[in-house]
Amino acid sequence: MKRFGLVIKQNIVWLGLLLLTDVAFCFFMWLVAPEAFVRIGVLVGVFTVILFAAVCSVLCIKDRKKIEAFRRFVAAPDEQGEIEMRSLCGASEQEYVSVLSEELHDLRDSVMQSGRQLRDYQEYVENWAHEIKTPISLLTFVVDNRRDELPHNVVTKMDNVTSQMQNYVDQMLYYARLKSDSKDYFMESIDVEECVDEVIADYRSLLEERGIRVRKCLENGAVYSDRRGLQFILGQLVSNSMKYTNEQPEISFDFWTAGNKKLLSVSDNGIGVKSCDMPYIFEKGVTGDSGENRKHATGMGLYLVSEMAHDLGITVTANSKWQNGFEIVLEFPDVETKI
Fold this sequence. Notes:
Shape: elongated
Number of strands: 7
Distance between the termini: 45 Å
Number of helices: 11
CATH topology of the largest domain: Heat Shock Protein 90
Radius of gyration: 35 Å
Helix content: 55-70%
Strand order of the largest sheet: 2-4-5-7-6
Strand content: 5-15%
CATH class of the largest domain: Alpha Beta
């Protein structure tokens, strides 16, 4: 009905012209045969309205077919679609169809080229990330084997550098994966304490160097998620906490259930985040205004945490008070109960 009303509105001028013609006809009929004027005038008026409505109905059906053909043509601008569009359009509109076809073909070629370039870039990044892990692992191996022979400050510096390099490589690799069309997540039941212990082991030397105490309360904690993705999230949160420590630094891991909800908290007693920065901490490139260390931050850690958590169906919330610690709470989907 909406389309029919629009067609009537578009052709209302023709209805006016027909009615004026009817008025003129009736006037001459009145002059010739006054006794038949009323009866013939009514019949002419009714016939005009019915004829106009029929024509509008035909135009409405034709417009509907044209719109459907246009949608198919825009979705797949091939030769058959162009022929169909031309058959439904008048001579004046066929030139527009040709122009539209050329633009859609150019746009499709551009999109396909951009897709190929993006896939090539993602493949290059992933290959580079895997290749660079070899010298990093070798460096770590050498330092571990020569730890007793090297000065303590050199070992500490090397541990710090290798950990930072590994963290940046992981960020790059997971950023490329998050933007990829294909994902290789493997969802399984994960023991939370075991997963946390593996992450802490990766950062153990840095945690010990900076005197950061780790507290865990993870008994009987099990969630359904992707192990690598969850370890990446926890690693970024640990790395973030280590950057903004206060005196007697501590990182805490707490797991609990609330009804059907399974929640994992990663918190620290560091400098926290200012209230004005809290709404933006998960945005890409945002480092906030929480001390000197943020000048050297990339602003990618919490952004990647948010993106990875979204992919895994994990809800992320943040709590903080300036100079009074920072907390991230991960709420896992109740997958097992639903199954």
